[in-house]
DNA sequence: TATATTTGCAACCATATAGTTGCATATTAA
DNA sequence: TTAATATGCAACTATATGGTTGCAAATATA
């Protein structure tokens, strides 16, 4: 099984999925699948697959209501990516300690 | 062609590539391919492919010296991931404005 | 010079991924 | 009740991905 961080990174590595996710975030409300797929050129089933990947990564939540399935964005898991990045931040942020001082602290 | 951000995200979405990259970062020095591959269970050619992906994403630089090819980590492109994340940060950081205020500003 | 080391290239394999279409089913509306 | 809508499931396709092995070429060492 893939790790959580791997699932999240793979989910956002696809440009179409990033678009879907972003659309859901700015919509700021749950949207049924057909409505989402109406905004994209690919088929509904293609969208459904992407939604599944996003759901597995925890980036969206899906709730069934009647015949519809409402998708809601949940950006919280992106915190994990942010945390992963944190270590490397020192390399582009001059205000942070650089690598050599990290290595010094480790020794 | 894939966008820069897509290349970077795909590069770090693979756990083996994250490991290779991290090893090069903490090594803080250029390492020849054979030396890198010695630290992993997969074949040298497998490593070479991963290095190519990392190089295409700009996350490592490779320099030939004699028969050896020295790989050096370059975390700078991760800044792009950081920038992409920035927009969603408000959802996990309470000190930032929330989505509704973003939407208000947009209106 | 002969040998060992480092590497690239090419072919190959299995599986994952991104997409499609067709059809059945459940729910809602006329 | 009949028709329209929203969805899932399954099969299929093409290409990408992560890995392997064998071999040739370039460079360094004995």
Automatic annotation (TrEMBL), chains A, B:
Limits of the HTH arsR-type domain: 1-93
Cross-referenced SUPFAM superfamilies: Winged helix' DNA-binding domain
Keyword Translocase applies: no
Single GO MF descriptor: DNA binding
UniProt feature coiled coil, ranges: none
Keywords, ordered alphabetically: DNA-binding, Membrane, Transmembrane, Transmembrane helix
Transmembrane segments: 20-42
Protein name per UniProt: DNA-binding transcriptional ArsR family regulator
């Amino acid at each position: 099984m893939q790790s959580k961080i791997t699932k999240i990174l793979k989910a956002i590595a696809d440009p179409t999925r990033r678009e879907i996710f972003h659309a859901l975030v700015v919509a700021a409300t749950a949207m049924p699948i057909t409505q989402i797929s109406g905004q994209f050129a690919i088929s509904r089933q293609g969208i459904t697959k992407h939604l599944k990947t996003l759901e597995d990564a925890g980036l969206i939540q899906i709730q069934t209501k009647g015949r519809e399935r409402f998708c809601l964005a949940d950006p919280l898991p992106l915190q994990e990516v942010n945390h992963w990045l944190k270590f490397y931040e020192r390399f582009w942020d001059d205000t942070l300690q650089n690598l050599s001082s990290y290595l010094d602290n480790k020794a």
